[in-house]
Structures are given as structure tokens and as C-alpha cells.
Write a sequence for this structure.
């Protein structure tokens, strides 16, 4: 079992073409002995964004604070807000 506070996890700038004002922290991943699940925490600055992209695996986006939007498969904006 791994117990870690988010403040103890390295914050990395998202180095993805088209990304701006976004950082990522990875408290749990395969490196921790979790081969099927990872926890990634993104912090997006006001006005920041990541480019439209997709993944070959399922994932969940949970908004802790603030608001923004996701682009769905059809390119429509889906509003997001805390909770």
C-alpha cells in the first residue's frame, strides 16, 4: 500500500504539443506496483489547456475546483465544473 500526500508528489509541466499552463502529478502508477491503474492529477492554470486528444484506455476526469470544458468525440464542448 502506498500512502502519499499530493504535496509530496513532483509536479511536472505537461510537455505535449498544443498544451499551455498545465501541470501533472502522478501519485500512483505502474512504478508503484499498480499495473492496471494510475492516478494522475492535473492542474490547469486560468486560460490554460491541453490539446484535444484521446487514449487507448478508460480514464476519469474529476474537477476539484474551477470550471472549463472537454471536447467530446464529435468535437462539441462539454462544460465542466467542480464536483
Amino acid at each position: 500500500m502506498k500512502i502519499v500526500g499530493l504535496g509530496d508528489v513532483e509536479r511536472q509541466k505537461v510537455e505535449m504539443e498544443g498544451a499551455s499552463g498545465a501541470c501533472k502529478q502522478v501519485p500512483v502508477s505502474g512504478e508503484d506496483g499498480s499495473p492496471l491503474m494510475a492516478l494522475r492529477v492535473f492542474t490547469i492554470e486560468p486560460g490554460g489547456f491541453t490539446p484535444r486528444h484521446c487514449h487507448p484506455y478508460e480514464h476519469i476526469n474529476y474537477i476539484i475546483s474551477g470550471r472549463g470544458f472537454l471536447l467530446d468525440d464529435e468535437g462539441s464542448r462539454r462544460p465542466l465544473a467542480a464536483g
Q: What stands out?
A: Residues 1 and 33 are 9 Å apart (CA to CA). Strands lie at 12-13, 20-28, 39-49, 67-71, 77-81.
